[in-house]
Amino acid sequence: MSNSFMFKPLCFQTEIIETDSKELHNLLLGEKEIVFVIDKKVLNLNPSLLSGFADQRIIPVHATEEIKSFAHAQTLITQFHQLGVNRSTIVCGIGGGITTDIASFVASIYKRGTRLWLIPTTVIAMADAAIGGKTAVNFEGTKNEIGTFYPAEKVFYNPEFLQTLPYTEKHNGLFELLKISFIDDNVKLGRQIFTDGLSMKLILTSVHAKLKICINDLSDRGDRRKLNLGHTFGHLIESIYKYKIPHGFAVGLGLRIALRCSREYELINDETFTAIEKRLSQIPLTVFLDPETLSKIKEQGKEILLADKKNTDKLTLVLFKGLKPDIVVHSIDYSDRVLEIIIEELGKQC
Ligand SMILES: NC(=O)c1ccc[n+]([C@@H]2O[C@H](COP(=O)([O-])OP(=O)(O)OC[C@H]3O[C@@H](n4cnc5c(N)ncnc54)[C@H](O)[C@@H]3O)[C@@H](O)[C@H]2O)c1
Question: Which pTM was predicted?
Answer without folding.
Answer: 0.92
